[in-house]
Each structure stands twice: as structure tokens, then as C-alpha cells.
Amino acid sequence: MNSNLHGTIKDSATLRWTAIILISFTQFFAYMFFDVLSPLQTMLEKQCHWSANTYGIFSGSGYFLNVFAFFLVFAGIILDKMGIRFTAILSSIVMIIGAGIKLYAISSYFTAGNVLYDFLNSFWTSFPANAKLASIGFAVFGCGSEMTGITVSKATVKWFTGKEMALAMGLGLAISRLGVFAVFRLSPFVASLGTETVVRPVAICGSFLCIGLLAVIAYTFMDKKLDEQLGKDVNLTKEEPFKVSDLGMLFTNKTFLIIAFLCVFYYSAIFPFQKFATSMLESNLKMSTDNASAMFSWFPVGAMILTPLLGWYLDKKGKGVMMLIWGAILMSACHLTFAVYPFEAGMSST
After folding, report:
1. Is the CB of residue 224 less than 8 Å from the CB of residue 49?
2. Which regions span the lipid bilayer (predicted)?
3. Helix (H, G, I), strand (E, B) or coil at 348
4. Rounded to the nearest 5 degrees, what angle is found at the Cα of 250, between the Cα atoms of 157 and 93?
5. Along the 350 residues of the chain, how does pLDDT read in single tens digits?
6. Spatial separation of the C-alpha atoms in residues 183 and 38, rounded to whole Å
7. How far apart are CA 90 and CA 87, in angstroms?
8. Which residues make Cβ contacts (< 8 Å) with residue 254, sequence separation at least 6?
9. Which among 259, 258, 262 is positioned nearest to 270, based on CA atoms?
10. Is residue 50 part of a domain?
């Protein structure tokens, strides 16, 4: 007789929430590392001799392989084929590798000069060699980060089907947003300890990714236990194998395309703003890096608080389309405020 007739560990609210919090910790640390340099753009310009254009190209590199090399599609295939446990560990390792490359790129060990430095400095000379290598590392990290995101989503579905699924997804996103808040608070402070350097916060946030890997490993034991308890039902409810023709069906689905385009516009509005927000406040309001970063750190707090509440509302009431419409209206209004409001007397923001 299957043990799932007597309940499984996901039927315990404490255990299923513990499982999702464990795997969400990786995403928390990933969000910290993703934005560790965002409040330090001015410092990067001084120490690494990066222009605003260089910083912008570097910031975009985190998404490059996912978009133009379709890695995120391959990540989904890996997740479907190999399962949550394998993909969660793999994504954490990929993030650590990418973080290591990025850390080495901005350190004095690389800029002191070597064969790799000379090679990267031999072409596209307007883009510094350390920025090239940092972009490569950030692109690798981005692959792991996005793979982590879809893995956490699938784990949430696995543990919360028939339960508080939207609330669980909201809590997972809230934990991630807490990472953004934390790094905008900590990064300038850590960089200013002792000798001012951008390397120190990157190294610390990189070490946090190792802690995230340990949290994922702890999660895998719970996930394996759940599969054992489900027993034969795991095979009975197994998903259909991936077929290339599935991609054609997906990209001709109007609902999917609408949601996908909405995500594109959301990402293009939020993440570039997030990368340049500290510098914008420094320029428009003549604030110090510490104060500008501290002010912007409150930006994700609203999302952190509201996302679980909106998830709970979605579980209870639905009305997801109206929530999307209102979200788009609010975001447009906020961006227009930053774009046209004269932050300084007699001057318009740029």
C-alpha cells in the first residue's frame, strides 16, 4: 500500500513551507549577487575605469545567453528531463562558477596583467579587458540564476498543488526582493570598510552563493523523501516527455505570447532602472552613494510586502488579468514621474 494514503510530508504546513524557504534562499542570494554592483557604479568608474556605457553593457550581459543563446529554453528542457534536485544543484554550481569569474575579473590579480588580460585587451579596446571578462562571468551567472528561478517555480508547484500555491510563489518572490533590499543596504557599506574597493562586496556575496548551495542540498533530501512517499504515484503522474514540436505549439499560443510580451516589457522597465537608479539619484538629487543606495533599497520592500498579499488574494479571488492591468498602469505612472519631474529647480531630469 502506498504511504501517500497516510499523507506525505507536503501535507504538513510546516514541512512544505520549510522546503520552499530552503530552495528560495538560493534565489535570495542570487538576487543579492545580481545587484551587488548596482549601487557602486560611481566607484566602478573610479576604480575600474568603466564608463556608463561600459557599465550598461556589463549589466545587460547577465541576460545575454538566456535570450540570444536560448539557454533558458535549454534550462527548461534540463529541468523536465533531469528533475528538480539535479537542476537545483546544477544551477547553484553554475552561479558560483560565474561569480568566481566575475570576481577574478575585477580583482587586481587580473588587472595586473597576464596572457588572458593581454588577449582580451587586444580587441574592442574601448571596452576594458576586465569588463569583458566580468561580462562573461556575469553571463554564466545569469544562466544559473534564471535556471534557479524556473526550478524554484516548479518546486513550488510540486509542494503546493492544491494548497496555497499563489501565496507560496508570492513568498518566494518576497524573499528574492529582500535580497535586493539587503544588497543595496550592505554593498556600499562593505565596499567602504577600510580601503574602499568594489571587490569586497562581490567576494562576500559570492560566498553567500555557497551557502545557498548548502540550502539546496538540504532541500534535495526533503524532495527525495517526498518522492519516496508518493511512491508509484510519481510514475502515474509523470509528465509527458519533451518534444521539439512542443516549442512550435508554445510559440503559436496567443495566451503564451501575450504573457511573454508582458514579461519582456516588465523586465525592460524594471531591471535597467534598478541598475542605474543609484547613479540617477546621485546625479539628479546630488546625493552621496550611501544615501542614494539606502533610499533606493526601499524600492523592493513594497514588492516584498505586497507580493505575498497579492498571491493570497489571487488564491482567494482570482482576477489575475485586472491585477496585471493595474500593475502596468502603476509602473508606467512611476516611470513617467522619474522621466519628466524636474528634480532640481529650473532643470528637467535627464
Report:
1. no
2. 15-34, 54-79, 86-111, 131-153, 165-186, 198-222, 255-274, 294-314, 321-343
3. coil
4. 50
5. 444 445 788 888 889 899 989 998 899 999 999 989 988 888 888 888 888 889 889 988 988 898 888 888 888 889 988 999 999 999 999 999 999 999 999 998 998 878 998 999 889 888 999 999 999 999 999 999 999 999 999 999 898 888 888 788 888 888 888 888 888 888 888 998 888 899 999 999 999 999 999 999 999 999 999 888 877 444 444 555 656 666 677 778 887 788 777 777 777 777 777 777 777 777 777 777 777 777 777 777 777 777 777 777 777 777 777 777 787 788 788 778 777 766 554 344 44
6. 9
7. 5
8. none
9. 262
10. yes
How many Å apart are CA 90 and CA 100, to the nearest integer? 15
Of 204, 199, 180, the C-alpha closest to 271 is 180
* Amino acid code (one letter) for 336: L
CB-based contacts of 21: which residues, under 8 Å, 6+ apart? 171, 175
Structural domain count of the chain: 1
Domain assignment present for residue 67? The answer is: yes
Residue 97 maps to which CATH number? 1.20.1250.20
> Is residue 325 included in any domain, yes or no?
no
Radius of gyration over alpha carbons of the chain, in Å?
A: 22
Q: Is the residue at 8 inside a domain? A: no
DSSP structure string for 236-260: HTPPPPP-THHHHHHHT-HHHHHHH
Phi, psi of 242 (to 5 degrees): -70, 140
Contact of 106 with 48, CB cutoff 8 Å: yes
| CA–CA dist 145, 271 (Å, integer) | 14
